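fold description:
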Amino acid sequence: MSKQEDIFEQGFELNTDAADAPAQSVAETRESRSEDRFSDSMTLLRRIPVTLTLEVSSVEVMLADLLNINDDTVIELDKLAGEPLDIKVNNILLGKAEVVVVNEKYGLRVLEFNAHDFNDLTP
C-alpha cells in the first residue's frame, strides 16, 4: 500500500468516526429530551385527580323492581360476606381490598393491587 493510500484510508476512517460522533450526540440529545418530556408528563399526570371506588358488589335489577324500592327494601348481592371488595379507579378494576376502621372512619386495607393496568385508564 502506498503512503497516499495509507493517508487516504486514515483520513477516511477519521471522517467516518467524525461523522458518527455527531450522530451519536444528536441521538443522545434526542433521547435525553424525550426522557425529560416523559418525566415532565409523568409529573403532570401524577397531579390529575381520579375517582377511587371501593365496590361491594353490583347487581342488575329490572326497572320495574327499581321503581318499587322503598326504605325497607333489601337487595341480595352476589358477593359473599367477608369476600374482598373491588378497588376501581375511574371504573377500571385494579385490585382487591377489605374495609377497616381507622380513627372512627372507614378505610381500606389493600390486599392486591395491579398498577400495571394503569394504561387501561386512558380512553
